């Protein structure tokens, strides 16, 4: 079966929904950035989405990004790629070369490794701190009760350029509670960036102040099975 996907149409629809959700929330649609998540899809699909005008993308694996993005960035030099998956400390150097934003700073050892690599390379990337708002054991992210001290440590001791916070709510829970919690923690630290909301819930996330929404399926279609 060959799946025909009209990426330009999907993109237009998602952008219209983002703009509508922003206006409903009394926000400027330009205050919400769409991160198109092409993980698990072949590079040609990201190329089609780039050709349709999208410039900000998300990938969850360093290896997959290394296979796809050098060529895509050569063709579209203004494209930006966010890391939205767990980063192993031994891949920090490669990640800092490949990505434009790190959304998943979730533990002191990683924060320290990033700080060292930024120093060594002279190249700093905006960082988001991932908060495990549902305190799920299998999920990455700093626990909510440790978030305040970790944010302070990242900015103070490690000197990371912390742009905001990121969360992935539990699949079986009302996401708005998690979005509200993330917003509250960000507010305490005067952080403007909120990366929250995926295909199923980005409209709600925008109502709760999301500045980055990470949308995969609604743009790229269903991910191929591995
Ligand atoms: C896969 C993924 C997304 C996109 O999910 P969709 O439901 O396909 O929109 C967003 N954020 C993260 C962290 C992901 O891993």
Structure report:
The model has no long low-confidence stretch (mean pLDDT 96). The chain has 226 residues and is α/β, with parallel strands linked by helices. It has a single domain, classed as Alanine racemase (TIM Barrel), CATH 3.20.20.10. Helices cover 43% and strands 15% of the residues. It is built from nine helices and eight strands. Bound molecules: pyridoxal-5'-phosphate.
Architecture, according to CATH? Alpha-Beta Barrel
Q: Based on DSSP secondary structure assignment, what is the total number of beta strands?
A: 8
Helix content: 40-55%
Average residue-wise pLDDT: 96
C-alpha Rg (nearest Å): 17 Å
Oligomer: single chain
CATH topology: TIM Barrel
- Major sheet, described briefly? 8 strands, parallel
Structural class: alpha/beta
**Strand order within the widest beta sheet:** 7-6-5-4-3-2-1-8
**Separation, N- and C-terminal Cα atoms:** 16 Å
Low-confidence stretches: none
Shape: globular
The ordered H/E elements are HEHEHEHEHEHEHEHEH
Bound molecules: pyridoxal-5'-phosphate
CATH class: Alpha Beta
* Count of domain modules: 1
What proportion strand? 15-25%
According to CATH, the homologous superfamily is: Alanine racemase
DSSP helical segment count: 9
Keywords for this entry:
226 residues, TIM Barrel, 8 strands, binds pyridoxal-5'-phosphate
Task: Briefly summarize what is shown.
Strand 5, helix 6 (144-155) and strand 6 (162-166) form a beta-alpha-beta unit. The chain has nine helices and eight strands.
């Amino acid at each position: 079966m060959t799946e025909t996907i009209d990426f330009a149409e999907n993109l237009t629809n998602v952008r219209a929904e983002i703009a509508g959700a922003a206006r409903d929330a009394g926000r400027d649609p330009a205050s919400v950035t769409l991160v198109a998540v092409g993980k698990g899809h072949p590079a040609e699909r990201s190329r089609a989405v780039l050709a349709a005008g999208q410039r900000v993308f998300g990938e969850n694996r360093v290896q997959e990004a290394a296979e796809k993005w050098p060529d895509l960035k050569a063709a579209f030099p203004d494209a930006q790629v966010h890391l939205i998956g767990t980063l192993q400390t031994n891949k920090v150097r490669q990640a800092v070369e490949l990505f434009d934003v790190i959304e998943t700073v979730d533990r002191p050892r990683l924060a320290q490794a990033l700080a060292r690599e930024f120093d060594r390379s002279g190249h700093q990337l905006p960082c988001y701190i991932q908060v495990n708002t549902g305190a799920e054991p299998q999920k990455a992210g700093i626990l909510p009760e440790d978030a305040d001290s970790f944010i302070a440590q990242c900015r103070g001791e490690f000197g990371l350029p912390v742009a905001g916070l990121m969360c992935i709510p539990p699949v079986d829970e009302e996401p708005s509670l998690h979005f509200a919690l993330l917003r509250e923690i960000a507010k305490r630290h005067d952080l403007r960036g909120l990366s929250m909301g995926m295909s199923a819930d980005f409209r709600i996330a925008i109502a709760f102040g999301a500045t980055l929404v990470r949308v995969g399926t609604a743009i790229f279609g269903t991910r191929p099975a591995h």
